[in-house]
Amino acid sequence: MIESHASAPPGTPPPWVGPARLPVRPTTGRFLVLACVFVCAACGLVYELELVALASYLIGDSVTQASVVLSVMVFAMGVGSLAAKRLRHRAAAGFAALEALLALVGGCSALALYAVFAFTGDWGGIWANGPRVLLVAFSLAIGLLIGAEVPLLMELIQRVRRQDPGGAVADLFAADYVGALVGGLAFPFLLLPFLGQLTSSLLTGAVNVVAGGSLVLGLFHRDLGRRARWVLLTANVTVLGVLACATLLADDFEQAARHAVYGDDVRVAQRTGVQEVVLTGGTGGRPLDVYLDGRLRVGGHDERRYHEALVHPALHGRHARVLVLGGGDGLALREVLRYPDVHRVDVVEADLGLVGLARTDPALSRLNDHAYGDPRVHVTGADAFAWLRGAPVASYDVVVSDLPDPGLTDSTKLYSQEFYGLARRALAPGGRLVVHAGPLSARPRDFWTVEATLRAAGLHPVPYQVLGTDTAAAGKGASRAPRDWGFLLASADRTPVLGLAPGGPAPRTLTPAALAAGEAAAEDARVPGAPPSTLVHPRY
């Protein structure tokens, strides 16, 4: 790509040796190189955060995904930096080609990850480790390309104006770290909320290729031959074209992928600021399913079994004042409100967007019996842990914890000893706390860790299990529905009696015999020796 200098007089240095022939003053040229370092660093960090965010959404366990992405990427950056030493004598052309490739790979990484997830099912069989393999592959490729930037940019800085190596390194890394700061703040506060995961990565790729191409073709074009300039210009325009086309088609692609994931009857897909909420079915006799961040949270064909098992045993006893933690869909609230002697229900839900859907969506509000229209209900939009820290002491007869499974990293603190200590403080004498602790058959150790954590918080739990119905023919996403649910009913005063309130509303799917069988089944599956989980030592 560099012009041949075989015909140059003997002893004539090649054009990449010594000061560059710049179209601007060296001071201006040095500023432009450092500005490019700034932009490329911001783009590189956006790629990293994009991979972490999308992997956490698709795979779960955000701590693990962040560790995998960052560790693999940092390792690859070291390898890329070593490999780029071979390109130092062609720093300008190498850097331009590198940025075009990085923009293409990084910009399309989110699109590719989501496409493979959406169109290859639930990662069964040969695809069982598909998302992790693809995540590592993109982390490795992007890390290699980012690492290769450093020696090439160092060479370009020195060619603009020769200075001592220490000063050049200081300038380079100052611009790099400030750019990383800007990219790190722009992703969660600007790009993700306003553009979404796919468009933000594509736009970042476009900025990346424009920055790299403009620097080389504008500032260092005299280092390149005519053919090299045309090749680089064509490559940059092609990458820009690919990213632009992908951006224009992103909405259509997202809709097609969403239908591939959730089925053809998606009615509502809304990002609330806390999570993505997708509602499917609910019309034409099809059951309503609620997905939160891609995970089936409410299965319409089985939701009543879950919510009746969660609520009714806890209301066996005094229940004038009830606190519901989570449960923004209003379905646990529906069961609580069936008791006429409940005087007040406080709902603490972090996602008021989900509460809004539960109020206004015809199918969901019909399913929850318009629970949020009941004057006994008072809603607070807050994190459950933070809210409990200021909750009135000894004021609730029943606390219903209808929160995401403990196996999700974001939920770990809501299943900690500290959290249950705060919930215990909010219970009135004789009050009960009921906890959904995930599927017992699929994650028994998580379930018994919750049980041990309740005991460590000074509570006396009773475990029980409720089986789901056969979901084999329930449609798209049925394979993700739990086959059972594990619950723990606990009290601070004594071990509670598992049963149903005498004279209370009769559940449609739950009987005293089923509760007794569920208690025995849970005890049979006991995992001894599970340690409690705390904020500083999470066990899930």
From TrEMBL:
Pathway linked to the protein: Amine and polyamine biosynthesis; spermidine biosynthesis; spermidine from putrescine: step 1/1
Limits of the PABS domain: 228-492
Residues annotated for S-methyl-5'-thioadenosine binding in this entry: 275, 349, 383-384
Residue ranges crossing the lipid bilayer per the database entry: 31-59, 65-84, 96-121, 133-157, 169-192, 198-218, 230-250
Keywords, comma-separated and alphabetical: Cell membrane, Membrane, Polyamine biosynthesis, Spermidine biosynthesis, Transferase, Transmembrane, Transmembrane helix
Top-rank lineage group of the source organism: Bacteria
Molecular function in Gene Ontology: spermidine synthase activity
Cross-referenced Pfam families: Spermine_synth
The protein's Enzyme Commission number: 2.5.1.16
Main location: membrane
Reaction(s) catalysed by this chain's protein: S-adenosyl 3-(methylsulfanyl)propylamine + putrescine = S-methyl-5'-thioadenosine + spermidine + H(+)
CDD domains in the cross-refs: AdoMet_MTases
Subcellular location: Cell membrane
Active site positions, chain numbering: 402 (proton acceptor)
Binding site for spermidine: 307, 329
Signal peptide from the UniProt entry: none
Bilayer topology: Multi-pass membrane protein
Gene3D superfamilies: Vaccinia Virus protein VP39 (3.40.50.150)
Similarity field: Belongs to the spermidine/spermine synthase family.
SUBUNIT field: Homodimer or homotetramer.
Xref: PANTHER family: THERMOSPERMINE SYNTHASE ACAULIS5 (PTHR43317)
Function: Catalyzes the irreversible transfer of a propylamine group from the amino donor S-adenosylmethioninamine (decarboxy-AdoMet) to putrescine (1,4-diaminobutane) to yield spermidine.
Protein known as: Polyamine aminopropyltransferase
Species in which this protein is naturally found: Streptomyces thermocoprophilus
Gene: speE
